[in-house]
Amino acid sequence: MTAPHLTREDILAWPKAELHCHLDGSLRLKTVLDLARQQGKMHLLPADSEEALEKILRQIDDSPTLEAYLAWFRYTIPLMQTPEALRRVAYELAEDNARENVRYLEVRYGPILHTEEGLTLDEVNDAVLDGLKAAERDFGIRTALIVCGLRDRYESASLQQAELAVRARKKGVVAFDLAGGEAGNPPKHHLHAFYYARNHLLNLTCHAGESWGPESIHQALFYCGAHRIGHGITLHRDPELMQYVIDHQVPLEICPTSNVQTHVVDGYETHPIRLFVERSVPVTVNTDNRLFSRTTVTDELWRVHRYCGIQAGQLREIALNGFRYAFLHWEEKQDLLRSVLDAFPLPPSPESPVW
Question: Are the CB atoms for 153 and 112 separated by under 8 Å?
Fold first, then answer.
């Protein structure tokens, strides 16, 4: 472990945190088929076996745009319209994370997408929280929930979801986010939702700078008041904005495999994560969608080490950043950090934060 190169097994053993994971993009294939059969919705799926579905899902790797990638959610969201399905998916997601030594998990989703068959927003959210809490009891993982507004919906829908997030602030919801296709849907069109969440002391993150340029990040920071940026891959195109992010240590929630699949970057080798790390941009590494990207937190960290030029000491700091930038109270965050530090025998990177 003191050698400059790590193995995947080394990283698997590390305690990890996951800050950017979509509930409806992280189902098990077996669960997709089970739910479809139970609900009489097999006709909605493109195949009727795990092997065939997995083969079809590989087409995601050729998504020409972010919007084309997002279209794959048409296979999962219709199956997540009952309390039982939502509880199961949330529970299994936390279980899968716990099995790869993820100690802290933030799950995000848009509750309004799960009201198509009569559930209220609160019923949807309570079911997801129930599933996460059950997994906490069974597997010892700590979880939190992020409610997403959707940038391709009217702002009134985003405000509804911000209000839901505030109502559930003491039940396990820690933040409000804005997700969905960026093109033609700027963050500043959802100001009231962000203001409502911020005014009620919720943390804020925002998908930005993924398929749209740094202007999207600019709006997320200065119009919406985001504390973290989801993806933020195009940040390096605006050196002054990147300097601001460095100066104020605004963390990026980077999801490398997803970025490659949506062609935001040409490949892992050209991903800007190495530049960000070398310039002291705070970086976390996440899965985005465990099913659609066929990945885990361990695999994402392993890939940036193997293909993106991230050295072992730097990877240690990225893994710790998942805890440093969690949406937890300061004291809780410090306790969590202290509990995992001894599991990292590597020396810290010279650029590592002091806290």
Answer: yes
Encode pLDDT of 232-275 as tens digits: 999 999 999 999 999 999 999 999 999 999 889 999 999 999 99
Average pLDDT over residues 284-309: 97
350 occurs within a structural domain: no
Number of domains, the chain: 1
**Residue 52 backbone class (left: φ over 0; alpha: ψ -120 to 50; beta: rest):** alpha
Looking at the domain assignment, is residue 24 inside a domain? Answer: yes
Give the pLDDT confidence of 84-114 residue by residue, as tens digits.
999 999 999 999 999 999 999 999 999 999 9
Residue 80 to residue 95: CA distance in whole angstroms = 18
CA separation for the pair 23, 95 (Å, rounded): 13
- For residue 334, tell me if it sits in a domain: yes
pLDDT at position 286 over 90:
yes
Residue 348 forms part of a structural domain: no
CA angle 54, 143, 300 (to 5 degrees): 45
- CB within 8 Å of 230: residues ≥ 6 apart: 20, 177, 179, 205, 206, 207, 208, 210, 253
Least-confidence region, from 20-34, 122-136, 152-166, 292-306 = 152-166
pTM of the model: 0.94
CATH of the domain at 132: 3.20.20.140
Higher pLDDT, 275 or 187: 275
Active site residues: 210
Residue 207 pairs in a beta bridge with 230
Domain that includes residue 21, residue range: 8-341
